[in-house]
Structures are given as structure tokens and as C-alpha cells.
Amino acid sequence: MSNNILLYAASENNSDIFYATGFWAPDPFVCIIADGSTTILLNQLEYGRGKREANVDDVVLLDQLIYQMKVKTAPNIFEIVLYYLKSRKISEVLVPQYFPVFFADYLRQKKICVKVSDGQILPQRIRKKPDEIKKITEAVRITEEAITEVIRILEDSKVVGDEIIYQREPLTSEFFREVMSLYFTKRNYFPSKPIVAGGEQACDPHQIGSGKLRPHRSIVLDVFPRSMSSFYWGDVSRTVVKGKPSKALLQLFEAVKDAQEYGCTLVKAHADGRDIHSKIIKFFEKRGFKTGKKNGIPVGFIHGTGHGLGLDIHEYPRIGSSGNALTENMVVTVEPGLYYPGIGGARIEDDVVVRKSRCENLVKLHKRFIID
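Above: the chain sequence. Below: its structure as C-alpha cells.
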């Protein structure tokens, strides 16, 4: 496998190239990692900023390469990269699975051996450094604060008939999203669209939620902001109810809470993500909550137990039916849930650091269900 890595993407939406360069850009640019050094190729627009901000060994101006090529017509980015690779006597590169096919085909036609990574193009991303864990922890704290604000509003609201009233207005999913989005924006976080799903909507794990929130029914809060400065994510879920939940819903929540805390005890170095997930499924079954279909709709524990967290909201590893082995200093979520239309849905999610013989939970927020 080649030790020379070629990346071409916009770091605004590609975490690999941002991790490799520390340079935030809205348009695609080239990054080459060869012989232990990292080089980026930038146009005139980004060159000055790249020199100041990028954490790389060299920043090369595309116009300078074009001048060196001595061509009559302006070359495209593929031709410029080909010239640069040949000038450095690089004949083989490793690219990620998302690398543009037409770019790879062009280089191959010009006798550059292009190999596609069969896994993580930058495997060092998997184990988080202390400063990365600090950045994730900061995002977690902001997430907790936003959820706490939602719970405060619920505490200050009243149940009136089939509505939850706050300051003379019915509470809605949209109102809580607006509250949290404003909270994040003021603190320099991207205002992502948190899930605020109540009642039957809470039975669909990725239902964002809409309309009035009803009393006595579960409300799933799944909140995941991203820092505008560090670009690391937080991801925390809590489930609450305003009013008096049914006995069945209360039992469902208690099973999720116990399963989530049990899941945290299973997370440690060398643990297998598939094994953890399997144990959570068995835990739910022993509590009487089976996973299957009812009236053609999946019910029970219908998603994975967790996923990696960092510069991407969902990254390697996975804790699920196709899970991976865990290693020290990974940051993963632990988020079992149960979903039964007619009863309700519940999910609890914490972000934890994998340690040698345990996990370190970064989340301090309570898991109280009934909000009086």
C-alpha cells in the first residue's frame, strides 16, 4: 500500500482533509501527504490565508505551478496535480473511497498508480488526542446547557387539557428548536436541527419532530451542535415527559435508562462493538422488550448502540450489528432506545472516551424523565 496520500475535497464538508491540514475552505483543494510531509495546493484567493492558517509543511501556489508548466492554454486541476506529482517523482498514490472517479481515471491514464484505501484513509483520526477530547467535551457542555434550557421551560410550563402551555402559548417542536438554535449561535456553534419529537413521532428515531408537544407522552431530545471554531461535535440525547406517563411508558423509559447505563459499563479497550450491541438486545428482551415488526412497522431497539464522534457526527467505529473493535482514546456514543407506537419512544445518549478497562463519560446531565 502506498505511503503517499492524495486528497481532493472542500474541508468545509470533508473531515479528512481538514484533519490533515487544519485549513477550513468552502471549495475543493488538493492535499498531498508524501515522505512524512504535508503539502496543499491553493489558488490565489486562498493562498495567503493558507500560509497563515494551515497546519502543513508547505503551501504551493497553483499559478506558480502553471508558470512552471509553460503551457499555452490554462491547465485544469488534474493536469496541475499530475505535473506536481511527476515533479516530485511520485508515481503511486493512495486515495479515499470518496475520491472523484474522473480524477482517479485521469491520473491512471497518465501512468500514475492510484490505489483506493480499503478503510480509513487517516487511521490516526480514530484515536483522539487529549486536545481533541477537550474540544469534544466543550461541545458536550454546550449541548447539555441547551437541553437544560429546554427542561427549564418545561418546568415553567403547565399542562392544560391536551396541551403544554408556556407563556400562554402551546409548546411545539419548532419552538424548542428555535430556542436551542439561538442558544448555539450565540455561543459560536452551528445551529444544527436538533430532534424534538413527541408522542408517536418519538417512535421514529430520526423523526425531527413537528407541531404541538402533548402532555403525558415522551419527548425525545437529540441534540448535536458543532463548534464553529474547533469544528468538533457534541451529541447528547435525553427523553422527558411533562405530566403523568402511562405505566407502560414509564417501564419503557426505565428499561432504556438501565440499558444505557449497562452499555457504558461494557465500553472499554478491546471490547467488540457487535458484542456490546448483542448484549443490549438481550438486556431488553429480558425486560420484555423484543425487537421485531408490528403491523409491518419495525419496533423495539431498531438502531445501533453507538458510533464514533469527532470532526464528524457519525464516524468510525460503530457499536452495532456490524460493529468494530474498540481501542483506547476513541470517543463513542452509547445510545440505546426503544420505540413502540401506541406506547412511545425513548432514547438516552452519552458521549464517552474509551479507556483501558472502562469508559470515561463526558456527559454530566441528569437523566430525569418526569418534568414536574
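The chain has two domains: 5-125, 130-371.
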